[in-house]
Amino acid sequence: MWTRDTAPPRPGVPSPATERATLVLAPNANAWTFEGTNTWVLAEPGSDVCAVVDPGPDDDQHLAAILAAAGERRIVAVLVTHAHHDHAELARRLARVTGAAVRAAHPRLTGEPLQDDDEIQVGALTVRVLYTPGHTGDSVCFLLPAEGSVLTGDTVLGGGSPIVKPGRLGQFFDSLDRLSEALAAPGSVILPGHGPALPDPLAQIERRRKARLRRVGQVVDAMADGIQDPEDLVDHLYPDLHPDLRDAARISVEAVLAHVQTDPDPVPS
Questions:
Q1: Structural contact between residues 72 and 95, judged by C-beta atoms closer than 8 angstroms
Q2: pTM summary value
Q3: Which of 95, 140, 214, 231, by CA, is between 20 and 30 Å from 63?
Q4: Which among 69, 59, 67, 60 has a CA at the least distance from the CA of 28?
Q5: What is the pLDDT of residues 120-142, one digit of tens each?
Q6: Which residues form the Metallo-beta-lactamase domain (predicted)?
Q7: Which domains are assigned to the chain?
């Protein structure tokens, strides 16, 4: 399993993460995607069918790597955590090649959008849908009840914080609560959309909640000091920011501004 203490796998080389989940790292590493998008192949041990979660960018080599990771198992479902192109661009092509159905919460990707607590059968493997808006309005996570793993897309990353757009920060905190409930079983692990697996999920979720709340508090303090403009707040809060990430930082600041304007207690104790 790829964790923070081990090197990431090479793109295209299958890397088992749990008994039922195998990682195929996409070759799209950049400032936004870190090492690349994590594509997951899910199957019950010994099964002749599997599902693919977040097939990633439309790339010939990545498509070939996914099919190789599936091996003799038939791909019967293409599951998407959210519609961003680095997760979903290959979905329809993979579905055409394999005859599988695409399942997602975004209606642009599927004829029957996923709902909270839906269950998807992949042979003997049960995949339960957790609706977790925040990063996007269509974000879902996929729980494997048989082992307690949750595939979190961009809701919880292996490192760093996801972008949360204005008006969705309250949803994001609610989704972290939802994930904490789902990951309470011993041995649970987070399998994120980017970055390494997180074997201590409750602590990881709490760490991310506190980090986001610290940022909210920093914005509130800066506003009290008279810094109101989003661009000025970015300069104040991110003094060493890489230029490629400025747009992401500005969106995050604007999300905090929207949150503090609508929540009477934006930084709970």
A1: no
A2: 0.94
A3: 140
A4: 59
A5: 999 999 999 999 999 999 999 99
A6: 36-194
A7: 15-262 (3.60.15.10)
Dihedral angle sign, alpha carbons of residues 20, 63, 153, 136: negative
Total Cβ atoms within 10 A of residue 261:
9
How many other CB atoms are found less than 10 A from the CB of residue 61? 11
By the 8 A CB rule, do 40 and 22 touch?
Answer: yes
Tokens of 239: 């003094």
pLDDT digits (tens, 9 = 90+) for 34-74: 999 999 999 999 999 999 999 999 999 999 999 999 999 99
From CA 145, how far away is CA 81, in angstroms rounded?
17
Q: How far, CA to CA in Å, does 89 sit from each of 113, 150, 165? A: 17, 22, 21
Tokens (6 digits) for 212? 């986001």
Contact 21, 151 (CB under 8 A): yes
Residue found by looking up tokens 């904490």 in the block: 180
Contact 15, 195 (CB under 8 A): no
SS3 57: coil
Tokens 């920093």 label which residue?
218
